[in-house]
Amino acid sequence: MASRGRRSIVLGVVVLIGLLSTGAVTSALYDQARDEIAIRFAAAAEDQADRVVEELRRGVAVGEAARAFALASEDVTAEEWEVFIEQLRLGERFPAANGVGLQVAIPAGSEAALEAEARAAGQDGFTVSPAEPVGDVRYVVVYFEPEAVNREAIGFDVRSNPDAFEAAERALQARAPRLSGPTRLVQETGDQAGVVVYLPYIRPGAGTERLVDAGFVTVVFRGDELLSGILSPSGALALEVVDPQGRGPAGDGTVGHASPEGTEDAPVRHQAVLSRQVLGRTWQITVSAVDGYAVEAAAPVITAVLGLLLTGVVALLVSNAQRQEQRAQALADAATADLRASEAELAAANTALEVSNANLKRSNDELSRFAHVASHDLKEPLRMVSGFAGLLETQLHDRLGGDGLTEMERTSLTYIRRGASRMQELITDLLELASLDRSASLRETVDVRAVVDRVLEDLADQMADEGATVEVGPLDPVVVDRRQIGGLVQNLLTNAIKFRRPDVPPVVQVSAVRDGRIWRLDVADNGIGIAEADREVVFEAFRRIHSREEYEGTGIGLAICASVVTAHGGTIHIEDGIDGGTRFTVEIPQPEAPEVEGAGGA
């Protein structure tokens, strides 16, 4: 009896240990599966939020192109605006952007003159609305394409819409694109919310009734359509965007929402609320899992069953060694199956990551292709303008003689050629900026002294004209993309010579030193310097802190420098230079061990 009792106790202990172990393993597997689902959902939610912002920025790129077009033309006509927007192919390339408009600023009281001018140019029925102005300046929409779905917005005074006017004022103050809060668009008949991006343009007036020194290019997005176009291909995620500081048609700041078809009433399995800064606004983006992302119970259940079987096997082993071997083999087979299942899940996760990377590369490739197409489409009419201006001047000179042209006629022809030339320079710099390899993938050891020598040779005429002196210090080699380092040095040295103080010959100091794993390039000058408040914004494209009459240029050179440095994982910042001038410092990480061969020219 005592022996039988001891055997019962041992068997009970074995069974208890088996049950406890099975429960622990089952719980751990369930927790692991749940955590994997949570990680997958979190990554998908971040990707969806980033796609919302990226889709909006792609639409803003359309506005940037339209703003450059408006600045390049002395007075854009409705037909020119329509043709330009058609060439951008919004529906095909940028489906989230529902329209692009042009606004001009006019003084209150000059509405009749603007209406008469527009109607005379073929815009029948053009009327400024509302009739009563708000303030002493009105921001009037003169063109909006595609006109068929935006006709109600033409003639509208944006200042009468508080949400839109607030964004326009912020854009004008910052001289940079700014996003409005959610608002009911004047061209809408329902309660759908929309947002508007305002891109200010500033140029001198030329004897016209309009205050064209301040105007806007606007890009309109309908909230629901913006989100519907970027829903996850899996059909498992719903999106909602809220601007906490906005109002909108619903009064709660809702920008838009979208969910896969047939999932409107589906329960939410996971939810993430993400915050994103978008052109001066803060968006709360709620991503909800309405399908999929459920914890697979098969593995924990199988593990529990196997654990129970193992417990029985272990208990039977007390009296039956033969069955022990048989049950152990079954357990080994089951463990192998679990391992293969885990490997399959890992492979699926890697595939999803590759798909995300491919989507990002495709977006970058589409932007690059757009830059090339826009460059070609914009350069062709500019070449025609410049060519016909020269032909016109030659014909007038031949017909009227050297003194036959009036001063105004000669000046006008000069302005035409100069404007076309500036636009071509701007397009060329834009194309260079868009074509930069953001990964700087082709890295090799570059002889920096050869790069600096070549740049100084190219700048020899400019240095002679300005009486500039360039002092060259030590120039250590660097491991970078050879195609990009020359442009970086060229832009920094050109700026150092160009932004000189009146009657003070430029003095420039350039050196490059490697300190451990950091290569540091310094370019210092004794020029006009850069105020601390402007030392961040000067790296933005088109940001100028001096007028073109004071210093020529497109305002893109430092943006190219920043893009090159960022592509190499480095930093660029500004400090005080020689006698109050400017010092640009570039720091680029280097490999652990520097390459010894390779001083080659760049």
Structural summary, described in words:
By secondary structure, the protein is an alpha+beta fold. The chain has three domains: 1-319, 2-Layer Sandwich (Beta-Lactamase); 363-435; 443-589, Histidine kinase-like ATPase, C-terminal domain (Heat Shock Protein 90). Helix content is 49%, strand content 18%. It is built from 14 helices and 16 strands. The strands form four sheets. The protein has a five-stranded antiparallel beta sheet with strand order 2-1-5-4-3, with helices on both faces. It has a five-stranded mixed beta sheet with strand order 11-13-14-16-15. A hairpin with a 2-residue loop joins strand 8 (270-278) and strand 9. The longest helix is centred in the middle third of the chain and has 80 residues, at 321-400. The protein is flat. The relative contact order is 0.08.
Summarize the main sheet.
5 strands, antiparallel
Compressed to H and E, one letter per element, the order equals: HHHEHEHHEEEHEEEEHHHEHHEEHEEHEE
Overall domain count: 3
Cα(first) to Cα(last) distance is 95 Å
> What name goes with the CATH superfamily of the largest domain?
CHASE domain
Total helical elements: 14
Helix proportion? 40-55%
The rounded Rg comes to 33 Å
Strand count: 16
Strand content: 15-25%
Explain briefly what this protein structure is.
It contains 14 helices and 16 strands. It is of the alpha+beta class and 602 residues long.
Short key terms for the protein model shown above:
16 strands, 602 residues, 3 domains, flat, five-stranded mixed sheet, Beta-Lactamase, five-stranded antiparallel sheet, alpha+beta, Heat Shock Protein 90, 49% helix, 14 helices
